[in-house]
Amino acid sequence: MDTQIKKNDMMDVFYQHARKNGLKLTPQRTAIYEELLKAKDHPTADDIYKRIIKKIPNISFDTVNRTLLTFSKIGITNVVEGYGQAKRYDSDMDIHHHFRCIQCGSIIDFHNKEYDNITVPEEIRKQFTVISKKVVLEGLCSKCRKG
Ligand SMILES: [Zn+2]
Ligand SMILES: [Zn+2]
After folding, report:
1. Ligand 1: centre distance to CA 20 (Å)
2. Rounded to an integer, what distance in angstroms lies between the CA atom of residue 22 and that of residue 38?
3. Which of 33, 87, 100, 128 maximizes the CB count within 10 A of its CB?
4. Is the separation of the CB atoms in 70 and 24 below 8 Å?
5. How far apart, in whole angstroms, are the C-alpha atoms of residue 1 and residue 8?
6. Which ligand places an atom closest to the C-alpha of 136?
7. 123 close to 109: Cβ distance less than 8 angstroms
8. Which residues contact 15 (CB under 8 A, 6 or more apart)?
């Protein structure tokens, strides 16, 4: 898929979502979302802050952090399970799964049709309302395996 087309589509989705939720589209918010969209490494608020400050030198960490929390609240971004560490954000709202490296903490996306169609055990379905299914595999990434 053409990444530029996908990016423009995603910006449209972002504008629509923001409008629907009464979120004012400030240049800062737009820049934060663009940065998040570019990131494929499931960045923390701090990562995004460090990247965006190069473009908007007067932005504060607090603004970045609060904006990301707002984005996840209105459903325009996902929060990757944090394992007690800083929240990590994921702008990819399509079904995908994660491989997490226990050594360096990288979170790498992967796709797998079988995992997408995994069935929820009946006892879980009885107890809870399941709204999404994600598989997280853990181990060593290719870089850490070599080292
Ligand atoms: Zn690693
Ligand atoms: Zn992801």
Report:
1. 39
2. 24
3. 33
4. no
5. 12
6. 2
7. no
8. 25
139 Rama class: left (phi>0) / alpha (psi -120 to 50) / beta: left
pTM over 0.85, yes/no: no
The ligand that comes nearest to the alpha carbon of residue 102 is 1
Q: Nearest ligand, CA of residue 142?
A: 1
Average pLDDT, the chain: 91
> Which ligand has an atom closest to residue 77 CA?
2
The answer to whether 98 and 137 are in contact (CB under 8 A) is: yes
For 37-85, write each residue's pLDDT tens digit.
999 899 999 999 999 999 999 999 999 999 999 999 998 999 987 667 7
- Taking alpha carbons only, the member of 53, 63, 51, 57 closest to residue 26 is 63
Percent of the chain with pLDDT over 70: 95
The Å distance, Cα 41 to ligand 1 centre, comes to 12
Q: Assess contact for 77 and 39: CB atoms under 8 A.
A: no
